[in-house]
Amino acid sequence: MSLLFVTTNAGKVREARDYLDADVEQFDYDYAEIQSDELAEIAARGARESFEAAGGDEPVIVDDSGLFVGGLEGFPGPYSSYVEDTLGIERVWKLAEDLDDRAAAFRSVVAYADGETVETFTGEVPGRIVAPRGTGGFGFDPIFEHDGETFAEMDTAAKNAVSHRGRALASLADWLAERE
Q1: Which of 63, 67, 141, 177 lies 20 to 30 Å from 87, alpha-carbon distance?
Q2: Which CDD domains match (predicted)?
Q3: From the candidate CATH numbers 1.25.10.10, 3.40.109.10, 3.90.950.10, 3.60.21.10, the one assigned to the domain spanning 2-179
Q4: Which residues are catalytic?
């Protein structure tokens, strides 16, 4: 089986190849991301559009992810990329610093589209918001701690072993295996 992963991030493609028993190729396409409070709705819409843009010959996968902070009622959630770009991780840490509830989760939804079917698969990794630590990763990794270590302190292999995207990709892999 061959899949197109709609992303500009080659690291995401490598991660998908680790989880999926498929030939995964990168498809650099900038689909119109709808505004929604639901990751699944955003990813599914992106997958439908991307499938058509890719010519409708091969299934596509799209992922949408976000950081959900309990004490901020799930903020920034699906708006994480925008919030990181406009506020930055230091300001998000400042918002969370004095909260009683700094529990958080990274969530990812991977959407699969093949022209007949659109399915979504969710992965989540629990953690908490902490003062920035570490130099690796990207985005909110320096303020997201899982099992005593921020994602920015983990090497790529350790982070991928617990990643929210990896968990969603594992669910997709199970579903694809059942369809064969």
Answers
A1: 63
A2: HAM1
A3: 3.90.950.10
A4: 64
Q: State the pTM of this model.
A: 0.92
- The residue with tokens 């694809």 is 176
Helix/strand/coil for 163: coil
18: CB partners within 8 A, 6+ apart = 160, 166
Give me the tens of pLDDT residue by residue for the chain, a chain 180 residues long: 899 999 999 889 999 999 998 899 999 999 998 999 999 999 999 999 999 999 989 999 999 999 999 999 999 999 999 999 999 999 999 999 999 999 999 999 999 999 999 999 999 999 999 999 999 888 999 999 999 999 999 998 898 889 999 999 999 999 999 987
